[in-house]
Amino acid sequence: MCGIGFVADARGRESRELVDLTLEALNRVRHRGAVAADRRTGDGAGLLLPLPRALVPSPWCGLAMVFLRDEDARERIERACTAEGIESFGWRPVPIVPEALGEAAQASLPRIEQLVLRRPLGTTLDEAERRAFRARKRAERAPGAYVCSLSFRTVTYKALCAADQLAAFYPDLRDPVLRVPFAIFHQRFSTNTTPSWERSQPFRLLCHNGEINTIAGNVAWMQARGGELGSEDDDLLAPVLDGTGSDSAVLDNALEALVRTGRDVRHAATMLVPKAWQANRELTDDVRAFFRYHATLVEPWDGPAAFVFTDGRVVGARLDRNGLRPLRLACCEDGLVVCASEAGVVDLAGHGRVRRGRLGPGEIVAVDPAGVGFEADADIMRRLAAGRPYRRWLARNLRPLEHEVCAPVASSDLTVRQVAAGYTREDLTLVLRPMASGGREPVSSMGDDTALPPLAGRVRPLASYFRQRFAQVTNPAIDHLRERHATSLRTLLGRRGLLLREQPQASRLVELDSFLVGSAALRRLEPLHVDTTFRAGESLEEACARIAATAAAAAESDTALVLLTDAGSGPERVAVPTLLAVGAVHHRLLEAGLRSRASLLVESDEPRDSHALACLLGFGADAIHPRLALQTVAALAEADGLGRDRPSAHEAQLRLGRALEDGVLRVMAKMGISDVASYRGARLFEAIGLAVEVVVAGGAAAQLCRNRST
């Protein structure tokens, strides 16, 4: 719903007219925002500009734009700059007109000031920007101020206002001497977070329209890297992301970290929000290799997203892989380029012939005044793909593993294991048999009218106590056409490379076509086995702590593949609920900063439907072997219990695998998520009331023991 865009001169000519056109464009997307009960306070609006010469005393100066809420914050910011060799030249109260805002905005109005900075002698502009970035990270360690921008290249003017109030609030924006070669604009429509001065956009590098559906997982995976980012400033950079910000702010944090540590802004934007490249045969081999390599470094930031970005030199826009947010483009004969959420935001009369278009799914455009001027998607991707020998790196290091999901035929203890795992007659007749027979999940009515697990009168699997959080507000589910071309179950296993470096060894991983693995694949992978069973006398809490500690020790000793297995269950040992074991290990590794060092594989009798698999993936599993489910359908096939075309045991297992994969894809599609790498660890589930406490504290382990004894 937000209104975003940029206005730029492809030849880099500075003008007051361009500021006016940007304000005009911002005013024309006012309808994409909302107002508070006072009918005047907006959700937030702003401009991000290349630092105008009119605002600084010399070309060697930079500017910090700050929302102050603490008297001591000025001194802390100055000390942070001094620590990076940046000299301060005094504070300037920014001229404002509070009466232009609504009552709610005025009530929370911070003191808005600018700090004039001097670039350290002997440094390049790029080095000065890195120092400014580090200075801001230092300043953020203490509360009391929000730094909108601290840069030698850009400045951000934003406020808790509607689009047509911004220029009235900031007289600076009406100054006739204000001249820029480009600007980006944003009118916010708050959906998942409460409007505030700090959450108004643009941020330091971008403005965003949409939602990042996988934001919890993206934040967790970035935290999982801990102090192993690959930069000499790892300790200062951590935490890379501000978890208290909106999803747009967090995306800006990630983009800024990549750009300030050396990557081109177009490269960084393409890494974080990639194309749907896996099934796209129109891409060249070099471009596919670019995306395939970067998938080893970072998980996609997935969701309906359109964003406009700049590093102060280049301005551009990017669309998510599904193309679920509009971005319209107009390129004029005289060099004027306008990109916005909708057409018509700028009157283009008098600018010559106009070439119009729109960004397609996963496309990027940019204006580089110091380089080629306007740059289309194909040209950008061709140049990025040629930046490193990605194809050669992948050929030497990435190890594809043939996809198979089969398990050996079960022994005579099949029924006993089914009882211990909580299988019911309904599981066999209404879930497993249809999937093994038809290769797809059984069709059922929408909704769930079964009893809540604590009230069901029998033990239900732990996954039953969780329900997925559906995509909300403006997140449309992925339709079947996009699902075919844009979704991916591709899975990578092994220790991940350093995010802030590009090295060939980062691709030393195992590549699977799916998160489902068979018994033969597990043997070839040779993971370290961690037993997820426990004896009588050991509490469930103690068992989870032991399992997590064992897995953490393995990851710390550079074991890249850890298999959580309940194969040791029997009359003397009971399996910890698989979801509980996975969650315990995943979070222990996150807390220890070890999660990116090892992949978690699961071998269990418990999961038997797509919901259970989706839960395991959502709470951190990388690959899953549903051993008992596969062996059960094989036994049904051998007993001629599947009907229809009477598939063999091998074929029944293959069909079950396809059905489970399709089921997980549908779960992802409902949430607007396209890539299982983004879905993994995203924790997009919520417990039903106190159900989880009932399971853990109400004697589930004892009940499992009784099941085993029968």
Strand and helix map with partners:
Blueprint: E1 3-9, H1 16-27, E2 45-50, E3 61-68, H2 73-83, E4 87-93, H3 103-107, E5 111-118, H4 125-139, E6 145-151, E7 154-159, H5 166-169, E8 182-187, E9 206-210, H6 215-224, H7 234-237, H8 247-260, H9 265-272, H10 285-294, E10 305-310, E11 315-319, E12 328-332, E13 336-340, E14 354-358, E15 364-368, E16 373-375, H11 377-385, H12 390-397, E17 399-400, H13 414-420, H14 425-438, E18 466-468, H15 480-486, E19 491-493, E20 510-512, H16 519-525, E21 528-531, E22 533-535, H17 540-556, E23 561-565, E24 573-575, H18 578-592, E25 599-604, H19 610-618, E26 623-626, H20 627-638, H21 649-670, H22 676-679, E27 685-687, H23 691-697, H24 700-709
Parallel strand pairs: 17-20, 21-23, 23-25, 25-26
Antiparallel strand pairs: 1-8, 1-13, 2-7, 2-8, 3-5, 3-6, 4-5, 9-10, 10-11, 11-15, 12-13, 12-14, 15-16, 18-27, 19-20, 22-24
Helix pairs in contact: 2-4, 6-18, 8-9, 10-11, 10-12, 13-24, 14-20, 14-21, 17-18, 19-21, 20-21
Short description:
This protein is of the alpha+beta class and 710 residues long. Helix 6 crosses helix 18 (578-592) and helix 10 packs across helix 11 (377-385).
Task: Please state the overall shape, judged from the principal axes of the Cα atoms.
Answer: elongated
Strand content: 15-25%
Q: What is the count of helical runs?
A: 24
The main β sheet shows up as: 7 strands, antiparallel
The overall pLDDT, averaged over residues, is 90
* Count of strand segments: 27
Give the low-confidence spans. 689-710
